[in-house]
């Protein structure tokens, strides 16, 4: 599979991804801070990375493929986070993704009225900060770190095989 150093980095990414997911759910359900729709979308890459890394360790084949999938996953995370930060800072107009709670095709008039009456968290409202940074800006840093680390693992894969 990989050398010890690459395996260690993948385990660190796995632990950090699990920590990010657990923290997000803790902030939402224990501390009571409601996430916006983009915040919910930003969780997807962490769950996907956990599944990919565990699958890679179990089957220990096609390691380079899994690393490339992880890189693409965190590029998606980085792009979504940059977009979300742009909305938070007012550089980008909020899209319909930020205002809709249910994405089903068949929505009745009553469901739409009910949804409009509910308080939906806006993507430009930051409800939780750590050291003065929004979770989106922290996600940008983490995603960039993961992309760089995984890129290094990918480029040195053939040497360490």
Q: What does this molecule look like?
A:
The chain has 161 residues and is an all-alpha fold. It has one domain (4-155): Bromodomain-like (Up-down Bundle), CATH 1.20.1550. The protein contains 5 helices and 2 strands; from the N terminus they run ααααββα. It has helices spanning 4-30, 37-59, 63-89, 109-117, 135-155, and strands spanning 129-130, 133-134. It is elongated, with a radius of gyration of 18 Å. The mean pLDDT is 83.
Concise summary:
The protein has 161 residues and is mainly α.
| Count of helical stretches | 5
Radius of gyration: 18 Å
Number of distinct beta strands: 2
Strand order of the largest sheet: 1-2
Q: Fraction of residues in helices? A: 55-70%
**CATH A-level architecture:** Up-down Bundle
The residue-averaged pLDDT reads: 83
Quick one: CATH class?
A: Mainly Alpha
How much of the polypeptide forms β-strand, as a percent range?
A: under 5%
Which class best fits the helix and strand makeup?
mainly alpha
Shape: elongated
Uncertain regions spanning at least 5 consecutive residues: none
First CA to last CA: what distance? 6 Å
SSE sequence, one letter per element: HHHHEEH
The major β-sheet equals:
2 strands, antiparallel
Q: If you consult CATH, what is the topology?
A: Bromodomain-like
Q: State the domain count.
A: 1
């Amino acid at each position: 599979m990989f050398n010890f150093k690459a395996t260690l980095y993948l385990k660190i990414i796995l632990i950090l991804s699990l920590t990010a997911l657990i923290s997000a759910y803790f902030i939402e359900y224990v501390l009571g801070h409601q996430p916006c729709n983009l915040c919910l979308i930003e969780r997807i890459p962490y769950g996907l990375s956990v599944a990919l890394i565990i699958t890679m360790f179990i089957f220990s084949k096609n390691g380079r493929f899994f690393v490339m999938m992880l890189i693409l996953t965190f590029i998606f995370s980085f792009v979504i986070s940059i977009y979300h930060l742009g909305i938070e800072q007012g550089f980008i107009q909020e899209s319909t993704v930020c205002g809709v709670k249910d994405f089903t095709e068949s929505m009745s008039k009553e469901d739409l009225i009910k949804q409009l009456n509910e308080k939906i968290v806006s993507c430009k409202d930051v409800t939780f900060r750590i050291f003065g940074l929004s979770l989106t800006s922290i996600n940008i840093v983490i995603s960039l770190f993961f992309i760089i680390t995984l890129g290094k693992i990918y480029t040195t894969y053939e040497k360490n095989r």
